[in-house]
Amino acid sequence: MDAVTEQKLSGRKILVTGAASGMGKDIAELFVTEGAQVALVDYNAAGLKAAAQALGMPSWACDVTNREAVNATVAAAGEGLGGIDGIVNAAGILDITPFVDLDPASWDRMLAVNLTGPFNVIKAALPFLQGVPTATIVNIASVSALMPMPGTAGYSASKAGLTMLTKSIAMDLGPTIRANTICPGVIRTEMTRYLWENPEHHERAAERVALKRLGNTADVSRAALFFSCEDSGFTTGTELPVDGGFSWR
Ligand SMILES: NC(=O)c1ccc[n+]([C@@H]2O[C@H](COP(=O)([O-])OP(=O)(O)OC[C@H]3O[C@@H](n4cnc5c(N)ncnc54)[C@H](O)[C@@H]3O)[C@@H](O)[C@H]2O)c1
């Protein structure tokens, strides 16, 4: 088998949100290595430009909560790539605050970015996805979708909502569109820098999971690749924890 036929996403066109940083950026990189054309989307215009230039792929700066902007972005990305076969929704925000102190504006924003954002992107991409025999949607939720943790009421609600949104659309959009959720544990990205930069917190977080380490973006990217290619061709509506053995206890 030559190198080209080994690529798992050869010829596929995939839009990735949150692509300026962390998991979204790493997913875009892996997908390009696997032969995909990737449209990178993020609201961090500077980070996005750098990530897209490094990959030689097109990018669109866009806030996923802005439905009109998302509609225009997805239409332009679909035109630019000549179609969209798959989506990865990785854009997200986190505010860990005890419920008594949780600002209602922060609740609103977490639901808008983490839940309504993916809704906006999927809705806008549907005309493209529906024209494809094997389209894929991958949503990045969190172990917070599966289990309660202190201070995560808004984040957990948004991610649990995203998990059930994914299951529901898997029912509605099959058989040609598959939709799955990834539920990462603690992964070393900008979002969790406050945790892993502190040796004590880092050790405590690693100690409480079976595999005794924090996750890397590559751990999540490989799961996103699985859900975006035919290796997962009979799998839809599931959520996969990528958490080193945390959420099942
Ligand atoms: N890092 C973790 O431990 C962890 C664990 C579980 C789930 N997650 C989820 O994984 C996803 C990726 O997070 P990450 O850890 O790579 O964090 P990150 O902060 O490195 O990346 C998130 C990206 O989303 C972008 N973004 C945020 N709001 C946006 C908006 N309104 N419109 C467009 N882009 C927006 C940011 O600019 C950033 O580039 C998020 O959905 C996050 O909730 C992270």
From TrEMBL:
Domain of life of the native organism: Bacteria
A molecular-function term among this protein's GO annotations: oxidoreductase activity
Keywords: NAD, Oxidoreductase
SMART domains, per database record: PKS_KR
Ketoreductase domain span: 12-180
Family membership noted in the UniProt record: Belongs to the short-chain dehydrogenases/reductases (SDR) family.
Protein name: Ketoreductase domain-containing protein
Species annotation: Novosphingobium malaysiense
Species lineage: Bacteria, Pseudomonadati, Pseudomonadota, Alphaproteobacteria, Sphingomonadales
